[in-house]
Amino acid sequence: MDRRAALQNIGLALLSAGVVNTTAATGSLFAADGTPEFDDSRLGELKDLSGYFPFKPSESPEEWRERAEYVKRQIKVAAGVWPEPEKMKIEATLHGQVDRDDYTVEKVFFESSPGLFVTGNLYRPKGKQGPFPMILSPHGHFAQGRFHDSGEKRVKEDIKAGAEKYEVGGRYPLQARCVQLARMGCMVFHYDMLGYADGFSLSNKLIHGFAKQRPAMSSEKNWGLFSAQSELRLINALGLQTLNSIRALDWVSSMPEVDTKRIGITGASGGGTQTFILAAIDDRISAAFPAVMVSTAMQGGCTCENATYLRIDTGNIEFAALLAPRPIGMSAANDWTKEIETKGLPELKQHFKMMGVPENVVGKYYPFPHNYNYVSRAMMYEFFNQHFKLGKTSPIIEPDFQPLTREELTVWSKKYPGPPSDEQSEMKILHSLARNNADQIKRLTPKDSTSLAKYREIVGGAVEVMVGRTFPEADDVKVENISEEEKQGFRQYHTLLKNERYGEATPALFLLPNQWNQKVVIWLHDQGKSGLLQKDGSLAAPIQRLVEAGTAVAGIDVLYQGDFNQSQPAPTEMPVVKNPREFAGYTLGYNHPVLSKQVHDVLNVLCFSKNHKSNPQSISLVGFGFSGVRAAAACAHSPELIDQLAVDTGGFRFAEITQIRDLRLWPGAVKYGDVNGLLSLCQPAALWIAGDSAVVPKLVQATYNSAGLLNKVEMFNEKANRENSAVDWLIKG
């Protein structure tokens, strides 16, 4: 059978499957009134923190291990701790010990990163023999943090309602839990959230109250938290607090008197968020008790509880599931967690049973407002008593204690003055962290196949999270042909590629030469699939050359291109959720960035082409302008599917973005090497790169050389004829 007959058979196969509409001559995907003839989930409303976040347990431990690895990596990427922070010696200052009858309290501070401090109090039991269990205790959004005093009026109301039992513990609930745990034989490190109590190296107004972008802190050089530049480096409030928690865990784990097999963590509200985030990503935590935070409903409203990528296709219940088989306990209150016993906990019980430890998860609703009150604390004491085998008789009673004054708690003094807290110090902290992160990534630059594998694990693993998608399965993508037209020397198909798993539709144009050479070029254009054609409908010159050479060519409209814009104009800014606070994490913590969604379109056409019954012998990907970035990102994600990649980004670099709602914003891109970082992941594909230099970028050179494929990289630095040069290279290859 000749090639023309084979192509005709493909068309007949499409007709017999009912997917070709030969009556649609124009290839339009819209009705006469402009209504789209296709549905795409990405055109619907964005998800926000108040959505519904159910958890579906895995069928087996093996299936869960694969899912858990990805979700842990997703959290780490979102928090800016992927790769994991390099272990550094912590120079902690302990001073001002207060001696009580059965415990002592010391003041502690140390730097987690230059200029960024962990501050808190260390409680130690007296009269007991170590090594001791250690409980980390982040406090959450309580007024004044570690210094919290609810006041006489409030505690009387709480005692009357049954939420508290004793006046001292009710007035000082944060101190109460530390004191009681110390009396039970545990060491406790009670440390500040950023912006609270002594943790003011970054202010409370910035970390928890940020609302409006700051133009003076949003340039390429002078940038602070919540800016486009900080997003591009995945530096955010949640991540900074997570870094502090990791450093706190590093520190307590280094103490000879700590039993490192019994390190727990507990906190409420925002402290509950810190509790399950740290416990989810760090197996050194052996048990956790997040109070009034784990829920299928609202996921955390503060800027310190949200981060780009954090909860896309996941949520707090699944984060809790990541502890298995380690124990987790959860209290709920008359707030967004009130349905935990019917929504979330049953699935967690099923999950822990599947993992062989049904006894290691417990949750309980208490009918009181958002809190960490006596009844919740009592539940927590029983939880750690059981799992850390503390040997205390149940029920455990929390007796009164002598509360510490603010002066006895604060770590700063004339001898130890606190750090500055202004925009200049903010920039120093963030820029120092960015340099350290960049140096850490740079040290991963491969020199051989072994280090290349590690580089791909880290940088490639991050890109997978940023794209937010594995490569589609063959059955995920179906084709609906809108029109088919015989042209001179080729057939032209307007089609719709439907990813049924994700509810996506990618409009595509396929050009199939009558004498097909079994090669496919997917040509991405900044004008979408119309960029393959001239105004009169004839093929653009580079496309004509490819078709005449016998190569099939595909063009697509990625999201917000071409057919997507028929019913409504493409947005000029990043769409955002209905939250007045100008923080990207409120949107991008729950929804893919625009670029990620556009890369999904590229993956859809790659999947369709790769799995087509005609079995193409090679698939090449081409992109000019910002479409070159889309092509590089898709190839970095799935390089084994692409034989040749030709890109010309026009000199674009993510580092030049300064507006938080720039449609091109792709958080993490700068951290992981910018455009060259994407290109460095593209082996084994052959590369054609247009730019201002004839020299292969160092990072690309390092990865391709480590793979033994440097000879497959070609640079083109002439200003003119770039598209034609790319076609020459494609045909030659």
Task: Explain this structure.
It contains 22 helices and 18 strands. It has helices at residues 3-16, 61-79, 152-161, 167-171, 173-183, 204-207, 228-232, 237-253, 270-281, 316-321, 345-354, 374-387, 406-409, 423-442, 449-467, 541-548, 585-588, 594-610, 626-637, 674-679, 698-706, 722-732; strands spanning 93-99, 103-113, 116-125, 132-138, 187-191, 258-268, 287-291, 328-332, 361-365, 477-487, 490-499, 504-513, 519-524, 552-556, 618-624, 644-648, 686-690, 713-716. The protein has a 9-stranded mixed beta sheet with strand order 1-2-3-5-4-6-7-8-9, with helices on both faces. A 9-stranded mixed beta sheet has the order 10-11-12-14-13-15-16-17-18, with helices on both faces. β10 and β11 form a beta hairpin. The two termini are 26 Å apart.
Write the layout of secondary structure elements.
Elements: H1 3-16, H2 61-79, E1 93-99, E2 103-113, E3 116-125, E4 132-138, H3 152-161, H4 167-171, H5 173-183, E5 187-191, H6 204-207, H7 228-232, H8 237-253, E6 258-268, H9 270-281, E7 287-291, H10 316-321, E8 328-332, H11 345-354, E9 361-365, H12 374-387, H13 406-409, H14 423-442, H15 449-467, E10 477-487, E11 490-499, E12 504-513, E13 519-524, H16 541-548, E14 552-556, H17 585-588, H18 594-610, E15 618-624, H19 626-637, E16 644-648, H20 674-679, E17 686-690, H21 698-706, E18 713-716, H22 722-732
Parallel strand pairs: 4-5, 4-6, 6-7, 7-8, 8-9, 13-14, 13-15, 15-16, 16-17, 17-18
Antiparallel strand pairs: 1-2, 2-3, 3-5, 10-11, 11-12, 12-14
